């Protein structure tokens, strides 16, 4: 998973599908759990991008809608942006597209708690997220 | 296939309501194999064990498991539970999932149990609960809606 861009409050992350991400032997469909992880990561990053500070956050909930199946043929892009930010909560929306496609394969909506317990991050957006 | 195995040796019993049945369903999913998921069955229904691996950590500061991994665990558990009830050849397709994170997921083994809330003709709604140390202390819970595979086949 890599960060492609952070543009104001909108972030874009890219994931190149691997063979172990497949949903069923003999199929090309990617497991929805992988899309879920991608959306969770991009949404979390969008909180930092909007808030412009790296205080710890926690996912309160994440809802995903899977419109159609994603296949291993193309990279996946997750575009996430904050819809509303308060001191305590961030509401994020995220779309997942196959690279080069205008129609999303899935969309997610997440709520994050801000300033949760935990060590504050130093200087950069150095939080590595992998799944 | 099961008949041939049965005729040779005791082999896995692939009837629903049995550990091997659920494990066989899981092992058809490459991503479930990657996560090392193991299925178990007890009197309360099917549950799936996600063994702890360092690569599952999402927050190194706490440390806590990545929320996305819990999401994947919940979705896969729902998928095999809905599949088991319907007994179709192909897996049901996940339409949506709604997951609430109740507590921080610590760096340890995680379990998920599934309950089929409503089994319709075309869709199925599955409730999944996740816990770690104690079954009564939930760390996450989710509801997953699935479209069942019909003979006509969908996508």
Short characterization:
The complex is a heterodimer of chains A (131) and B (155). Chain A has 131 residues and is of the alpha+beta class. Chain A has one helix and six strands; from the N terminus they run ββαββββ.
Commentary on this structure:
The complex is a heterodimer of chains A (131) and B (155). By secondary structure, chain A is α+β, with helices and mostly antiparallel strands. Chain A has one helix at 32-51, and strands at residues 2-7, 10-15, 57-66, 76-85, 89-98, 106-114. Chain A has one domain (2-114): Thiol Ester Dehydrase, Chain A (Roll), CATH 3.10.129.10. Chain A has a 6-stranded antiparallel beta sheet, covered by helices on one side. In chain A, strand 5 (89-98) and strand 6 (106-114) form a beta hairpin. The model of chain A is unreliable at 123-131 (pLDDT under 50). With 155 residues, chain B is of the alpha+beta class. Chain B has a single domain, classed as Hotdog Thioesterase (Thiol Ester Dehydrase, Chain A). Helix content of chain B is 27%, strand content 35%. Chain B contains 4 helices and 8 strands; from the N terminus they run H-H-H-E-E-E-E-H-E-E-E-E. In chain B, strand 1 and strand 2 form a beta hairpin. The radius of gyration of chain B is 16 Å and the shape is globular. At the A-B interface, helix 1 and strand 3 of A face helix 3, helix 4 and strand 5 of B. Chain A: One of its GO terms (molecular function) is thiolester hydrolase activity.
């Amino acid at each position: 998973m890599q960060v492609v861009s952070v543009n104001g409050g909108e972030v874009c992350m890219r994931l190149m599908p691997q063979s172990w991400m497949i949903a069923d032997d003999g199929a090309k469909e990617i497991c929805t759990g992988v899309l879920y992880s991608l959306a969770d990561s991009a949404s979390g990053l969008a909180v930092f991008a909007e808030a412009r500070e790296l205080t710890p956050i926690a996912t309160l909930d994440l809802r995903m809608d899977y419109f159609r199946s994603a296949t291993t043929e193309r990279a996946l892009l997750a575009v996430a942006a904050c819809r509303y930010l308060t001191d305590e909560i961030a509401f994020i929306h995220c779309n997942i597209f196959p690279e080069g496609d205008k129609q999303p394969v899935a969309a997610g909506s997440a709520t994050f708690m801000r300033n949760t317990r935990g060590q504050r991050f130093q200087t950069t957006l150095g939080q590595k997220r992998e799944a | 296939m099961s008949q041939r195995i049965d005729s040779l040796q005791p082999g896995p019993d692939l009837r629903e309501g049995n550990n091997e049945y659920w494990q066989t369903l899981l092992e058809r999913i490459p991503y479930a194999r990657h996560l090392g998921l193991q299925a178990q069955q007890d009197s309360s229904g099917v549950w799936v064990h996600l063994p702890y691996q360092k690569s599952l950590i999402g927050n190194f500061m706490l440390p806590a498991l990545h929320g996305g991994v819990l999401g994947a665990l919940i979705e896969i558990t729902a998928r095999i539970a809905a599949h088991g009830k319907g007994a179709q050849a192909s897996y049901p397709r996940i339409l949506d999932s709604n997951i609430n994170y109740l507590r921080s997921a610590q760096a340890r083994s995680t379990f998920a149990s599934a309950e089929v809330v409503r089994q319709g003709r075309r869709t199925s709604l599955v409730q999944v609960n996740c816990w770690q140390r104690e079954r009564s202390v939930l760390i996450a819970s989710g509801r997953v809606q699935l479209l069942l595979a019909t003979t006509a086949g969908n996508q």
